[in-house]
Amino acid sequence: MEWFNSFSTFEISVIGLFVLGYSLYFRRWFTAGKLLKQKGGNWSYKFIIRSIYFALIIVSLLGPTFGVTQKEVESSGKDIYVLVDLSKSMDAHDIAPSRIEKVKFELKKLANTFVTDRLGLIIFGSESFVQCPLTFDNSALNLFIETLNTNLVSSSGTDFGPPLKMALDKLLQEGDQSGKESSKIIVLISDGEDFGDDTADAIRELRRAAVKVFTVGVGTEEGSTIRDGIDIRKDQNGQPVVTRLNSRALKEVAVETGGKYFEINEGLNEIPQLISAIDSVEGEFRQSRQVDVTANKYYYFLAAGLFLMFMDALVSVRLFKL
User: Fold this and answer.
1) How far are the Cα atoms of 5, 30, 92, 188, 232 from residue 241, in angstroms, in the given order?
2) Is the pTM above the cut of 0.70?
3) Whose C-alpha in 95, 157, 190, 314 is 20 to 30 A from the C-alpha of 35?
């Protein structure tokens, strides 16, 4: 027999209260008998039956499990590549504490939600790199997320095309041979300033492969300046550079691939809706295996304890013999 719950301080406390209560009861009964000069009645019956159903209830709380059976368990999941824009515009502070820091915070929530799915991480600016391949290792993924900063990629602009093509290639290469195309997902996170020329080609390839892209726009339409150390970044004319959210390109990618567009700004956070949208995508069947399982049979002990408690309430005994 195995136990679903461990013997804890709660059970010890309840047993202690039971013993203390009956000790005080015995003391009062003994004192009353001496004062009345009467012999004790059949008190042992009540003590025994109450001890038994009390013990049965304690056992039911511990969750006794026995009776091993075979159960078929099916494993399914999704392959998700998250593409994170690390261009310098992601250092803007129109979202506190900054766009990239807010993205890192939300990415950890995303990683902790889809623990049964494989997640990968691609970073990009004008070029793209695989920061973390598809993995079930949630701890490793969170470490990679923590290291994200805009110094990891070239600061010469943003191009959606290369990371989208890279993510598609990796999903098709690393995916299960029996996997469904619908279980492969790309999440593109950016402020939307796409200066590349390959995005249209990437969208056509994604549509042919039936891979959905969920896009997340980060920033505000009012925009913000970008700090370069203690200074504010300026253009060639010496004017402060202001970066603004450009949702049009992100919405286009989402619509063309059958995905959805979500947004993070100073007053709106649609990451919960993104999580729901990803969760609604059917996962692919990975494997089926037989496992040994035991059932928690607490209800047998609880039923027996309640029955004895009911009988105890029905039957009365004399405490003293007259």
Assistant:
1) 60, 91, 10, 24, 8
2) no
3) 314
